[in-house]
Amino acid sequence: MKASGLKMDLQQLLTIPILSKAKVIAGHRGLDRLVQSINIMDAPDIVQFLKSGDMLLTNGYILKDRPDAHLGFITDMHAIGCAALAVKTQRFSLELSPQLLETADRLGFPIIELSEIDNTLGEIFQHSISAILQNKTHELHYALSIHKQFSTMVMQGKGIPSIVDTLSQLLSSPVLLLGSKKQITASSHYAQQMDHQSLAAPLLTFIDEHPSFHTAISICLLTADKYRHAELHPIFTDRHEGYLIALYDSSASSKLSTLALEQAVNVIGLELTKKQAVKERSRRYKNEYFSDLIQGFIRSEQEALHRGKKYGLQAKGSSVLIIAKKDESLAGIPKQNSTSSGEERFISERDANYELIKQEFARLDLSFVMFTKNDQFGILVFLAESSWDEHTVVQQLERMASNLYTESQLSLSFGIGNSYTNVLDIGLSYKEAVKALQSGYQMRKTRFAHSYQTMDISRLLRMIPHDEMLQFHQETFKPFNDRDPNERNELMKTLSSFYENHCQIVDTAKELFVHRNTVIYRLEKCEKLTGRNIKDPMESLRFRLAFALESLLNVNPAPSEANHTS
Predict the structure, then answer these.
(1) Each residue of 179-196: pLDDT tens digit?
(2) What are the C-alpha distances in Å from 362 to residues 321, 355, 356, 359, 371?
(3) E strands within 99-183?
(4) Tens of pLDDT along 495-507?
(5) Which one, of 278, 279, 291, lies nearest residue 374 by Cα?
(6) pTM score
(7) Judging by DSSP bridges, how do beta strands 111-113 and 84-87 pair with one another?
């Protein structure tokens, strides 16, 4: 006969009335073993049927004629992880040798004498199981009660700090909640009175040295002056959210204390999951709004301002758009595959980087709203009158890029568009910021901050009628139209790169990954086709203007730009 799936430590079980006359005759160190099941089967090969946590009740019949097997029997039970051997030795005059008892003491394996108990083994079995069931029922009731209490607090809007404080009162001990970055996000009132930063210091040292545990653990902190004993419960949702920690003067934390901690972890995890879901939905709506605005899907200024009011957009005032991007994304590193796991990793990494960038930006004296667009991070800065010092902002962004790389190994660069006053012009500022980014990458830079350098020329060009700009562009590049498309693209790519590199042959060759003689040959061919000296200042200006017009005309971009567009 066997009952399993229950749990109670041996010392607690021995306090029930029917076991009042039971005597522990060996292995006292093992009284903290958990009794997970009780077995009263009598058979010579009983050991092969026993499992970890079993307490075996026997009248000694299986051992009475096998004195040479006693020692091996006890050793095998201990090796399996059994809780104890409880035996009525007088029933069959079973003698346990001193060597056996010494071995049980050495192993910490309890042997319990039941001979003074008048009840049968069946009655002992039934009373023991009943006690374990009552204990389990009490634990379940307590767990449900605590869970309901914490859940009610959440539904009443009291929040996670109230749960931490209430838990501290239940345990009569300080309680700390650490976030995913190991920062203290909540602490009980008792912990705050005792300088919770100093309480957390040895715990943070332990977590740094053991970062990968995923289940609750109890530790002893020898370096702490007080509250050396702690229970650490990691909190997980779809990611690691931090740790709930209870501190004790002694190591004897009760089972009910552990249950209270487990229920607090469950409720906190559910609350964090709910908050994360709300946050992600709100962020998704914001990203969709700015994407629609940038791509021109919102054509009414009134609609744009109405939908953007919650993000700080106003009819009056100037704004500037800054685009941030991981350097690797434009440096030839393959993108994540399209599998669901690859997509999840990309989103998880992007969200983590989003928070890092937002934290850094919050340190600047700027009013801003942040969003994501594909693998880019958009920071829309609202400008107060005479508050925009572009040179200073570029320096701040460069320092930010350096800090993010040093502290978080995030290599990031920034592109800055021109300021604008009409909310519908954000798309143009976005294109300018992307071009500023591309300019830096074309120069093989990383962790840089570039502003769009053609603000004045761009404004002048926008004043020219569209037909005039189109005619100028077509006439400038007309000599290339009769060439084979591949040759045309190759020549125009070389010409554009030549001007971007300030007419330096060597720099142009490096950017195009070709020999300098190849660059010279292509440029000579351009001169023959156009009949112009491409190094002449006026001719250089003509070609540069024609290339600059392409973004305004919405024609195919210059090959050097197309090659870097993501």
Answers:
(1) 887 888 888 877 766 666
(2) 16, 10, 10, 5, 14
(3) 111-113, 175-178
(4) 999 998 889 999 9
(5) 291
(6) 0.54
(7) parallel
